[in-house]
Amino acid sequence: MWFKVFIDTGDLQHKFKKVREFLAEKNPVKLTIKAKGRVHRELLTQLLNKILLELQSEIEVPETPAKFEGHNLSVIVHPVKNKKNEETKVQNTQSNSQKVQVDR
What we know:
By secondary structure, the chain is α+β, with helices and mostly antiparallel strands. It is built from 3 helices and 4 strands. Strands 1-2-4-3 form a 4-stranded mixed β-sheet. The chain is globular.
């Protein structure tokens, strides 16, 4: 998802909504902040920190730090893994293995 450095709050909220849709489908999202002209890198990192703070509950901590690709700053975020679903899967596999053992 592309963001420009000077983005209004309404546009930013719309981008957040779209990113949340991708994360709800368990897809990783590449966040890119595009700089045009003479923009300080501090503005890019401030916007990225603002984005990551807003999406903090839906994403895991990025494995790799944000990196500059020319004038752009980008990072790949992954959706948070649902621990409850993983626990139920483990319980289901354990109960299935117990059922198999009983059938033998």
